[in-house]
Amino acid sequence: MRVSLFITCYNDTLFPETGKAVVRVLERLGHTVEFPSGQTCCGQMHWNTGYQAEALPLVARFVEQFRNAEAVVVPSSSCVAMMRDHYPKMAAELKDERLMAEVEALLPRVFEFSEFLTKRLGLEDVGAYYPHRVTYHASCHGLRNLELGDGPMRLLRAVRGIELVPLEGLEQCCGFGGTFAVKNADVSSAMLAEKTTAVLNTDAEACTACDNSCLMHIQGGLHRQRTGVKTVHLAEILAGDEVGR
Amino acid sequence: MSGVLDPRTSPPFPIVAKTMLGDSQLRKNVRHATDVIQTKRARVVGEMPDWQALREAGRQIRSHTMENLDFYLEELERNCTRAGGVVHWARDAEEARQIVVALVKESGSDEVIKIKSMTTEEIHLNPALEAAGIHPYETDLAELIIQLGEDWPSHIVVPALHKNRQQIREIFQKKMNLPELGERPQDLADAARMFLREKFLRVKTGLSGANFLIAETGGVCIIESEGNGRMCLTLPETLITVAGIDKVLPRYQDLEVVLQLVPRSATGERMNPYNSIWTGVNAKDGPRNFHVVLMDNARTEILADEEARQTLNCVRCGACQNACPVYRQTGGHAYGSVYAGPIGAILTPQLQEMHHAQSLPYASSLCGACYEVCPVKINIPEVLIHLRNKVVEQKGVSAEALAMKMMGMVFMSERRFRAAQRMGRMAEVPLVRKDGQGVGWIGWLPGMLGGWTQVRDLQEMPKETFRDWWEKRGKDGK
């Protein structure tokens, strides 16, 4: 299949390893990856913070970049949730009927990365090897908006050498919430403290998730506490193989 | 806790939240209580094979009512009057207070027994009654604790949820003059019962809220756990019910749906122990004078806002509060209003016409747990975002707005985006410190971003963006 990658502004800038891992997994599975270079941001930060005027034009920009895609893969559950939950309404708000139709036609072809593997390709075992003790955090948008269910866990269970440990309070928000982490820093910190305690209680070497924004938050807390526990995007675990990098 | 929970005077959410986060006893109490309720709720909701269908039925009933509110309110007034009740209309809190005070005076009493009503808390009725020389006695156990403790409610359903048993015992010992009071729940319940019984039998005027108003019959419905409410509804000679106009249900049969949804969501019970419905007056039984004060207080403005209208569908079960990770950290007082938690974060700013409580729409990580548990499927995150947009538009120019505008422009061009990425890498250089493994971390950020580095580090930006890597990869012919 010809897979178009929407890397997200966040991953492009801060977590390029995640994008490389997505490419590695998809190519290993025999797919062709393309990267429309005009892509930037889905508009989530603006939209969720109340800056609708700034977010609206990004809908047309996204459609322009991906209208001809066979499938769009996004390694971020919150960005996919942004598109699915809000793009149709945003296009309607712009009173652009052509855009509304294009959004409607494109969205069924947009997938979060783990969702693409499990739901679109029907895969669980992607031939990965990752000999570490790992715990999984279910990001809120993946859990509630995308209803990923146990899809990411099924992918992880099929990884050779991995030791999976359950995370207590799996469904609790880590406290990131985009600009919430800055606007309500104290509450966000209190929520984070619960999450990092739960992670540390698992004795895992790494905490994984389908969203680097949650992971950056958790990683920030774990590093401040000098714990040595790492965070790693699910794609990077699935990209690991016995041949090595 | 000092001062009335009043959005007009309360400091912004992050400020009060910070104080609350320092109260470890309160946080322990809130955590424990919400955990217990959530566990019970999950169990009884899990028993229902048609829970999602029930939620959808609840949503449809409530949405339909809001879309035809004028019709059902008129029907309610007609039927209530026919049954012997008197309907009063109050445009705002001030009018509602005046009407109630006048009615109580007319009843010839300088005392009232009250059954828990968040609506009367919303309009600060108790201070108004006291100013008029009328003493209100709260009879809901939790509200009694709040009243005697000179405290403020912190939860819609469990107003004293932030207090534990020992704290309650101390309040009762002091205020009921019971130095020998035991510490079993039974002892506390007995003390409250003795204290209240005397009021029930003596006070001739009752004041209630309403869980639902039934247009078809003109009836009023209250659901509760203790039976104290029923005493207030049946013993006095005069009963005054204060309700927001959003409390209407079209038909009697609609109770079939909401009376399954609410108790399960609110307290994890299959049914409330006491479900009271009263309609007008009856010569042989109950109050001889019955008044309903129907209060707007900004509700028609909420109704006019198509995107936020669903706020009025709320049936006040408090499930969103128990599920909210923000509420669970801070408790209710941080919200500066009687309506706390996610529903408070959307309801309060709208009741205040957005002039006050501007920080409340941001008191959420948008995790969606509130939407997931709401028995009438109010999409609270969606309304929060809508209100955030209103806040931004009202605020106009600010440092944040300028930064957001610039970022918006950056995202409209690949060239500008790449330039911004390069600039970010340069700007962070003076802030980066290498750790033992040679990895760069930022432990301090200036200005607004400083909130991040309060308890979190930030890894330095990688030297190469994904798109740079992708382009190079193409050139290498890989």
UniProtKB/TrEMBL annotation, chain B:
It comes from Edaphobacter acidisoli. Residues 300-326 form the 4Fe-4S ferredoxin-type domain. The keyword Iron-sulfur applies. GO terms for biological process: lactate metabolic process. The keyword Iron applies. GO terms for molecular function: 4 iron, 4 sulfur cluster binding; metal ion binding. PROSITE patterns: 4FE4S_FER_1, 4FE4S_FER_2. This is Iron-sulfur cluster-binding protein. Keywords: 4Fe-4S, Electron transport, Iron, Iron-sulfur, Metal-binding, Repeat, Transport. It comes from the Bacteria. SUPFAM superfamilies: alpha-helical ferredoxin (SSF46548), NagB/RpiA/CoA transferase-like (SSF100950).
